[in-house]
Amino acid sequence: MDVFYAYTYSTAAWFGIQAIPLMLSPKLIITALSTEARKPTVLEEYLCRSLAFALLTLAILTVLLTGTIPLSSSLAESEITADPSDSKAPYAVPTLTVTAAFHALTAFYSYMQYTRHGQIGFALSEIGSGFLASMGCWCLVFGTEKGRISKRTGADKRTSGWPFKNEEADRKKGKRL
After folding, report:
1. 148-174 burial, b for 16+ CB within 10 Å, e for fewer?
2. Which position has the higher pLDDT, 11 or 86?
3. Is there a contact between 133 and 107 (Cβ–Cβ < 8 Å)?
4. CB 99 within 8 A of CB 11
5. What is the mean pLDDT of residues 64-75?
6. SS3 labels along 119-140
7. pTM of the predicted model over 0.85
8. Which residues of 44-82 are buried (b: 16+ CB within 10 A; e: fewer)?
9. What is the chain's alpha carbon radius of gyration, rounded to the nearest angstrom?
């Protein structure tokens, strides 16, 4: 499932993009987001670096728990899926749910901060987290089940004829309209 892998790696990259400036230069981040010019306190620097380490930990856990990086050395195993019955990555769907909810909450909070303060950093966070939240929800809704694909025709068996009729199939089956 390509979208699942894209979501996993994008989430890890987004967490890393947020963590690196917090870890390397917390003074710059604090100064850029504060309303008045002042020197940051030691506690603010500590909290920035702690948040950076937490974000990097979440990035690593997301990649490992979803099974994107296989923990076994065998190359013969098949691809990891987001199917709940997949025994190769039993925590893929719960991790997907938690990270999608995290992105949605972060996007909402960033939107609220942007409307209150009008700073572009909050708008960028809103866009990135909102995109990943929608991608995570898409994976949860459409990517956690294989579907019922016909082996003979390759079509999805869950479709119906409403509101349009399949006249060609009805004619082949001998049904009258």
Report:
1. eeeeeeeeeeeeeeeeeeeeeeeeeee
2. 11
3. yes
4. yes
5. 75
6. CHHHHHHHHHHHHHHHHHHHHH
7. no
8. ebeebeebbeebbebbebbbbbbbbeeeeeeeeeeebbb
9. 23
